[in-house]
Amino acid sequence: MDEPWPLFITNYLLDIPPEANEKMYYGPYNAILYSAFPLTQRFIVCPQTYPLETRQSMDFTIEYIVQVGRTPVMAVEVKRARVYDTIQARADADDQVRERLFSMGNTFRVPRFHIVSVLGTRCCVYSYNTNTLSITPPRIVPTNLTLVEDLAPAERWN
Prior knowledge:
This protein is an alpha+beta fold. It is built from three helices and six strands, in the order H-H-E-E-E-H-E-E-E. The chain has one domain (about 5-155). The longest helix has 18 residues, at about 85-105. A hairpin with a 2-residue loop joins strand 2 (about 60-70) and strand 3. Helix 1 (about 5-15) runs antiparallel to helix 2 (about 25-35).
């Protein structure tokens, strides 16, 4: 079976040290998106930046929106690998994706919109159903406010 994208991109990602910040991942993920969503099929990959003061941020200022023409069909949010190791950082990443889906929800012109939350080389795919207004995977609601609970389990980014 062929690789889904050039092997040199995979090798580049695997060579990024765990302590690296998000910026080290932007190039290879941009290349992956252009490989998976080629211009010849009318896809456009649009990096989006947000001023930190207008959006809650967890070491995050950029995401990629994949569009066909001017219609967004998916997005990718990239964070550094070390985020994967902490319960709070994963919960913040989960909240950020859900906030983004809710803020964009009324603009989608596709039946399902996907956001890929990337933590280093691991990812979790979120899907927003525009008919039911539901998001998968479902939010984990705390059951006891006096306990620390893992509301965004590491297994989601497998």
